[in-house]
Every structure is written in C-alpha cells, then in structure tokens.
Amino acid sequence: MSFIVRCILKESRRIQTITVHQQRNIKNWLAPTLKELYRRKEEYEYLHGPIPTPKRSAFIEWNFGSEIYAFGKRLGENFDDVLLRQAFTNSDYVRKILEDQEKLGLETSDLTKNSSNEELSKEGRELISQYVFGFLRHALKKLPEEAVKCIHDKLLADEMLSHISRSLGTKDIILTTEHEPDEKAYATVFCAIVGALSRSSNAERTGGFIRDFVLTQLAENSISDFYIPNKAWETLASLIPGVDARLANQEGQGTIMAAYRVAIFDSKKNFLGEGFGETVKVAREMAAVDVLNKVFEIDESCSPLPLGPTDCPKIEEIGLKMNNPNQSINEVVPNIVRLQ
Amino acid sequence: MQNAKIHKNHFYVSAPLKNGIGRYVCQLQRVTLKFCKTRGDSKGIRDFIESYLVDYAKSNPGVVVYLKPRRHRPAMLTMEFLNGERHELSCCQFDGFTVGQFLNLYTKCSGRQESRLINVQYTNHPSIQGPWTPWTNRNPEMAVADLIHDKKWREMYNKAPSATEMVLEMFKQQQISNQIQIEEKQAE
C-alpha cells in the first residue's frame, strides 16, 4: 500500500527519506529520475563541496511565534512567552545579532547581552540537580550518597539532556549561528526551558516537568545499570565483617567458554548472593555487586520508581530531601536478615 | 515498502523518550496542508479547512498547522514528527471528513515508518527466576565434596584409619616381609 520514496531534496546532504502513503505502484520513470538527480548531486558536491541540510526555519511555512506556543502546549505547560523565547536564544546568536547591528550602525533594539539563555540555563540546571537529588534520596532511601551522586551525574550529563531536548522538538526552534546546534546547545536549551518554567509557573509544576522528562529515563532500565560500584568486593568486605566468598561451580576451564560461579556467605554461613564470570575474580566481583544491590534495595525485585501520576512524591517531600544527603557508603549498616 | 527493506524494518514495542510513563506528549509536531483553491481534487481539503480545521487546532494546541495554497497543485498533507520523520499523504478527491480522520490518525502516531512489530509484548526483565546457567538443571551433588575417600580430609577429621586402609597397610607390610624373606633365602 505504501512505499518509501527516496527523495533527494535539492539542498540536502543526506538522502532524506520521506514516507509517502497510498501509492499502489512505482512508475517507470521514477528510478531513472532519481538516479539522474543523485548523479547531478554527486557532481555538484564534488566540485563545490557538500550541500548543507536546509534549516526548517528557513522554509516558507514557518511561524516562530506559533512554534513557540505549540512547544509549550505540547508539553502541557503554561510558559511565559517572552521567557520561552529567551530560553531558545543561544548566546552566540545574540552576540552575532549585536555585532551585525553595530556594523550597520543601528541602535541595539530589544536584544541585549542578557537576552540569551545563559542565566535561565544556570537556574534550570540548578533546579534539575536539586530535584533529581531530592527524588533519588526520597525514592531510594537505602542507596548511599556516592551512588546517588553517580546516578545524578549520568542524568545531568550533556548527552542525556541533549537527547531529551531533541526528542521534545527543540531542534528547529533553537536560535544559533551554527547550522546545526551541538550537544551542549541542546542541553543548555533544555535547562533554560526548565528555568523559564520555574519563573512562569510554580515549583510543583517544575518538579513534575523534571520528573516526567529527566527522571523517567531511569524507568525501564534497572537502576543498577546506572550505578555500578567500583570495587564491589572490597566495599562489601568492609560493610559486612566476616563475609566469605566461595567458588560454587566451575565449567569449561582452559577454554574460552570458561564460567565460574561464586557464592557469598556471611559469617553465619547464610547465603547472601551469587555471581557469574569468565574468571574467578570477575565472578566474585559480580557476586559482590549482586549482594550490594540487595543491600541498597536496587536489585531486580525492588519496587519501581514512583513516577506515575498516582504515586509520584509531592514537592514538599522532595524539598525535605534536597538538602539531606543519604548516608555515605561507609556508614551503611546492611540488614542481613532481609538479604537472606 | 521496498521489497528489500520489508523485513529489516522491525521493532519491539517502545515509546519515544518513555512517553506515557510521566506525561503524554503528542508526537506530531506540525502539519502542512497544501491544496489548490480551484482544483476539484482539493474540494475535500477545502471543506475540511472550512468546517473542521479550527476545532482540530483548538483540541490539539501542540500541533502547528500551516496552510499552503498552491495553484494547480494536488492536495497533500505533510506531517512532521518529533523524531524528525516526515510523512506525506496525498488527499486528492478525499472527503472533508476523511481528511480529518487521517489527521486524527497521525496525531496519535509516533512517527515511526511503517514497520513490523516483532512481538506485541516487550519486557526489560524477561527472566523471573534468573536466566539459564550451565548449572541450572544439574544434579546438585556435583558440588558436594566427596569426603569419605579424600585422604587429606580424612587426615584432618578422622585420625584413625579406615578398615580398608588397615587392610591395605597389612597387605603392604606382608609384601615387604615377603620380599625380605625372599632376599634372605637368596643370600643363603
């Protein structure tokens, strides 16, 4: 019923696929036409260099105001229009505009050095950081502070924030001098949007926004994927005195398919956890990770994060935890009864 | 679908950016309605614009609607999604209501190309009791040490020799004394 037409847009570097629906057949002239267009494009690019992809904002059907409005509504929030526009304006864009205006000798209009999203971005990043810390400490009470910080850093990395930003559709709206915004620009814009939201709206809505877009990245993956302890066996040995690792099984020694199974017991010979690995050391490390996951309650059987509309924590509960770090990894007292 | 790609375009159930776990974000970003003001093909889309478009725009404020009247050009809908995909639908000789129906359909799409669902179910934790290991269905006795016949353990836990060991000792002594007797006889 439908097929993909590999249309080569005049200015596009990549061959952009557009899905065209409801055509029962492919005409005889289509393939030769596309081949000819492709040949001409290659020839042009050989002589003149690559053709840049067109910016969506350069199209005739583009209305910046509508896009900004729709962006806010799509996320289900009420943004202040001026603040949201500011959130999308990168500092290099502002600088270029001011330079151009100076060259032409015009008086600087409404754009000043403070019209960029730098300040909003700093505010937003601080808010995201605080909320993420508060939420993780509230939801994962047994998780030590070092682990919380590790997960927090991964969530606030430029890579993660830029991925979220792109998926929300900021790509076409961002105002930059570069042809395509880079990772840092996306991350800055996302933080600025959070900053704009906090100024337009209340803390509850800002918290909800951060929870729905940043913290949901933890949802389907296990939390233990975000935090893998560095020296698990040593940590475990210091937490549970008398902990004992025994080689439970081994298979295929001397081959590339060697497998070892290490089980960890406490001083009273209670089974705590097990791990598998290609060498004994790796297996012991994995076993220690297994036990630590049980101690910190981030194992496979832990309860899911409270991200849904019914079980999400209130902003007051998060606020309590924002400045109260969890216990350090050295202070953890594992509940051995629960581990068995 | 091109025949070569029909089997390669497959996917598991997933939502873009964990959509729905927190809040639902409509994946349709903008829609462009291209039509001719006079051509008969575009009658349906013109009816849609007159009767249904404003209601659609009000109920979907997150979707930007662009109208593009182009003389002598066929009626077309171009949908752009948050994942960067563009879908084009020819609306020639459509009814006004049909255009609305298709638009509603695309409002609820994620923008993925037509692809084959591998399975209706998906889980990040496929195993409840733990995945298979080489020792899953093995006899647990393989991990039990055999202490009865292990001399080192016997030396540690059981100082007295077993009956078998006593007999073996007696046999050895007998062999040694036999040997001595044979040597004495030879010496004579």
Automatic annotation (TrEMBL), chain B:
State a single Pfam family of this protein.
Answer: L51_S25_CI-B8
Ribosomal protein/NADH dehydrogenase domain ranges (all copies): 37-110
| Subcellular location as annotated | Mitochondrion
**What does the record list as GO biological process?**
mitochondrial translation
> Where this protein primarily resides, as one coarse class?
mitochondrion
Q: Which GO cellular component terms are attached?
A: mitochondrial large ribosomal subunit
* Family annotation (PANTHER family): 39S RIBOSOMAL PROTEIN L43, LARGE RIBOSOMAL SUBUNIT PROTEIN ML43
Q: What is this protein called?
A: Large ribosomal subunit protein mL43
* Species this chain originates from: Cloeon dipterum
